[in-house]
């Protein structure tokens, strides 16, 4: 082989090596691009998962099927919608809660009271049974006398079986921390049935968390899924049509559980003892 042929062969070898090297570089570049794309996709997927999880948490934070006192519906939702016929505009809710000392249940034991709950939609009259629920009635009476319920929005309405209630009692519309005391369950029905007109205490999952929030049943409700039940302390004797009117207007935003679409607030509560 001549020197010229050897040089030609070396050039071919060099060209093949350069071609292979260029191919490797192109493959490496392509792999880097793929890695960047995959990383970007993973970032997008991760962001989507985080957002979905957060929304799931928000959903879990919404009011449950039970009339618990931990409902976090804001009071502002009850003051922006237009009132229904027979109602005036709901007042602005308080910005703070007046703390009240826990009353002795002996102040209500064996007694019957009449509570006139004046709302922006009219009066709702409730007979309070201190014989069956002395601590609950004593608390309600004490809060009423302290003007605790003044201008407080009824922050929750439920419109889906098995729960049909209007929930009230928290001056801050569901975000308050209560009057400064709590107590246990009294007079909960063993069968879990809450007939229309029943007035009972709302609470959290803690049976000893009764405080200020209460609910009015506007249609027979079955809460037998909650073994401990809720303290029944009164019965509506007048003004049930007001609660039914609010219920008929539905929930703000078209849901089945949340702030009433028709705002209703307690302006004041007057309580008198019924003499034998």
Automatic annotation (TrEMBL):
Transmembrane segments: 34-55
Region (Disordered): 58-77
Domain of life: Bacteria
UniProt keyword annotations, A-Z: Isomerase, Membrane, Transmembrane, Transmembrane helix
Compositional bias of kind Low complexity: 68-77
InterPro entries to which the protein is assigned, alphabetical: Cyclophilin-like_dom_sf (IPR029000), Cyclophilin-type_PPIase_dom (IPR002130), Cyclophilin_A-like (IPR044666)
Entry annotated with the keyword Cell inner membrane: no
Domain PPIase cyclophilin-type: start-end pairs: 122-271
Keyword Amino-acid biosynthesis carried by entry: no
GO terms assigned for molecular function: peptidyl-prolyl cis-trans isomerase activity
Record's function text: PPIases accelerate the folding of proteins. It catalyzes the cis-trans isomerization of proline imidic peptide bonds in oligopeptides.
Name by which UniProt lists this protein: Peptidyl-prolyl cis-trans isomerase B (Cyclophilin B)
Organism in which the protein naturally occurs: Pedococcus dokdonensis
């Amino acid at each position: 082989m001549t020197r010229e042929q050897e040089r030609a062969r070396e050039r071919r070898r060099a060209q093949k090596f350069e071609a292979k090297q260029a191919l490797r570089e192109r493959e490496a570049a392509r792999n880097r691009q793929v890695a960047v794309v995959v990383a970007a996709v993973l970032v997008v997927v991760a962001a989507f998962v985080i957002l979905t999880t957060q929304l799931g948490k928000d959903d879990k934070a919404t009011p449950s099927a039970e009339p618990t006192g931990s409902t976090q519906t804001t009071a502002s939702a009850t003051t922006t919608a237009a009132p229904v016929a027979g109602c005036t505009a709901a007042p602005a809710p308080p910005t703070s809660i007046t703390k009240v000392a826990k009353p002795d249940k002996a102040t209500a034991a064996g007694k019957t009271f009449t509570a006139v709950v004046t709302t922006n939609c009219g009066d709702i009259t409730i007979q309070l049974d201190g014989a069956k629920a002395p601590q609950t009635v004593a608390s309600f009476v004490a809060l009423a006398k302290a003007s605790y319920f003044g201008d407080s929005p009824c922050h929750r309405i439920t419109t889906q079986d098995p729960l049909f209630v209007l929930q009230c009692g928290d001056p801050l519309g569901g975000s308050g921390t209560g009057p400064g005391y709590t107590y246990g369950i009294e007079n909960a029905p063993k069968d879990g049935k809450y007939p229309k007109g029943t007035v009972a205490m709302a609470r959290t999952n803690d049976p000893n968390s009764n405080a200020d929030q209460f609910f009015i049943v506007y249609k027979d409700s079955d809460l037998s899924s909650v073994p401990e039940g809720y303290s029944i302390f009164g019965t509506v004797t007048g003004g049930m049509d007001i609660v039914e009117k609010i219920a008929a207007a539905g929930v703000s935003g078209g849901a089945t559980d949340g702030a009433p679409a028709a705002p209703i607030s307690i302006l004041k509560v007057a309580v008198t003892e019924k003499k034998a």
